[in-house]
Amino acid sequence: ADYLSGVTEDAILSDLIGAYTVLFDQLNNLGGEWLQIEEPALVLDQTEEEQQLFIKIYQELLKNKNKLKVLLQTYFGDLRDSYQEIIKLDFDGIGLDFVEGRESVKLVQKYGFPQDKLLFAGVVNGKNIWRNHYQKTLSLLKDLGNIDNIVINTSCSLQHVPVTTENEIKLSKEILNHFAFSKEKLVEVSEISEIYVKKNTSLLDKNIALFDKNRVQENIQLKQKITHLTDKDFIRTPSLVERRADQIKALRLPLLPTTTIGSFPQTPEVRKARLQYKRGELSKSDYEAFLEEKIKECLELQENIGLDVLVHGEFERNDMVEYFGEQLDGYIFTQKAWVQSYGTRCVKPPIVWGDITRPQAMTVRWSAYAQSQTSKPVKGMLTGPVTILNWSFPREDISLKESTLQLALAVQEEVLDLEKAGIKIIQIDEAALREKLPLRRSDWYSEYLDWSIPAFRLVHSKVKAETQIHTHMCYSEFEDIIPSIDAMDADVISFEASRSQLSIIDALKAHHFQTLVGPGVYDIHSPRIPSSQEIKIQLEKILNKLPMEQVWVNPDCGLKTRGNKETIPSLTHLVEATKEVRKEKITYDK
Questions:
Q1: Could you give phi then psi for residue 340, rounded to 5 degrees?
Q2: Most CB atoms closer than 10 Å: which of 88, 287, 308, 488?
Q3: Domains 9-212 and 253-267+299-589 share a fold
Q4: Which fold has domain 9-212?
């Protein structure tokens, strides 16, 4: 932690322990029996100093529990750095995650578990929607040894899954039988306890029967295709530097090319037309004519503003993951399975039901139409395989790596079809690349980056040298994985950067980043309109650290959630600032 001048750690600790002691006393006075204290930070890499600080705090705090029973609850990982010390402390219960905690079973086996405490065993997955495989769970519990004081628990809170399958009236009972949302997970906790403690075989037999059936038919051809992938399939040739010359000739763009990230404002008119089409109130031909008109308007707007590389606006898309999932075999969708994303924003993630394939082109129709309406390059816009999977409920019967490779092959087919249709720039967004990065740095590569980065490379490995591949990343901090991002081998990467005061630029420079970059020069999450001068200052900051030839100019994210009244002047100012900087730089260089 950072402390104000004159404030010591001991003073903070004294006040903090005092505040918690007051809470303990209040709960005791109210007759409270159990208090759950959540410490998920314990599953992160712990320094010796942090471990000692934890022990110091709780040795003092637990002296004041009186009759209160205190449960230390952890989740999203294991306690490999501090388990030995934690079990010595005066907690009455300790909650361990046996779903994501890879070392949790080994820790209990190696160091045991105190008989004077309750083990809250997180064996029901609180982050995914699949039914629990009771036999596997019982086997795990058996592996823990002779521990009588076990409470069956979820691996984490249930805010990550929808409320109940009872709200889903369009999915068949056969499909819903395989799902457990929050309400169903509580039933699972009860049933596993009933089987484990009371040996209720009828509940176990029913669960065994569910898992004995083949839920989906395996796509043998797809499996063989993945099995036969070689190192060459993940490498694009020629190299990044060599193909850059081909792209300069093919695209003929000015220095500091201007563009947007992809989506344009989804006005009430656009949302209304999509809803009417889904309800059958608008014919397919009328809906497509409407979309063509919106695309033409969007292209004219961008040309009038003076942007160098255009986008079609994505008016046909409801969501950057759901839109693709709806067109891929292997996905299913719910009606009301909403979960919290952040704040009051909720999302309805699609579910990976089976093997993923692309039955037909998904975006070519709209990108090709847009390119036919202008002489300027129009970017093809795709969501990358890692983001599609990270923003879905994934399968549990195959690895995340295998599902991602299936998606990568499907998106690869789309990339090649876009190229055949004359699209010279193709953007493959990986907004959620960072989201599934393991919490422990030691697991980053072996558990995630060693397969997620190659999966992205697989998507674009077969395109021509003159085809320029872009990607976009947002919603995360990327400074500590810059080498991995460079290893994606995209030609251009745009980042969300304005809200972090362009801090990523220093990281790019420090790591000798080779890819062309478009750090966002203004924040689209605010309705505030940046002035030309403000954007110019941002650009100058970037160019003080990166060569002009390496920089693209763009907002920091898509414009879907903004209105035209902010979007048009903001983009106009972006182009004005860029032209001014170009002129000054070129004049100065001369």
A1: -70, 135
A2: 488
A3: yes
A4: TIM Barrel (3.20.20)
- Determine which helix (DSSP H) or strand (DSSP E) holds 469, and give its type and residue range: strand 468-473
Q: Is the dihedral of CA 173, 385, 318, 279 positive or negative?
A: negative
pLDDT digits (tens, 9 = 90+) for 254-309: 999 999 999 999 999 999 999 999 999 999 999 999 999 999 999 999 999 999 99
> Residue 325's Cα: distance from chain center in Å?
15
Is 0.85 surpassed by the pTM of this model? Answer: yes
Return the SS3 of 390.
Answer: helix
Condensed to tens digits (0 to 9), the pLDDT of residues 353-411 reads 999 999 999 999 999 999 999 999 999 999 999 999 999 999 999 999 999 999 999 99
- Structure confidence by residue, pLDDT tens digits, 227-259: 999 999 999 999 999 999 999 999 999 999 999
**CA 474/CA 487 separation, integer angstroms:** 18
Catalytic position from the list 460, 470, 525, 573: 525
Domain extents in the chain? 9-212, 253-267+299-589
**Of 139, 141, 146, 132, nearest in space to 189 by CA:** 132
| Cβ atoms 316, 294 nearer than 8 A | no
Q: Look up 312 and say whether it is catalytic.
A: no
Give the CA angle between residues 11, 16, 20 to the nearest 5°: 150
Say which CATH class 253-267+299-589 falls into. alpha beta
What is the number of other CB atoms lying within 10 angstroms of the CB of residue 487?
16
* Whether the Cβ atoms of residue 152 and residue 132 lie closer than 8 Å to each other: no
Tell me the one-letter amino acid at 227.
T
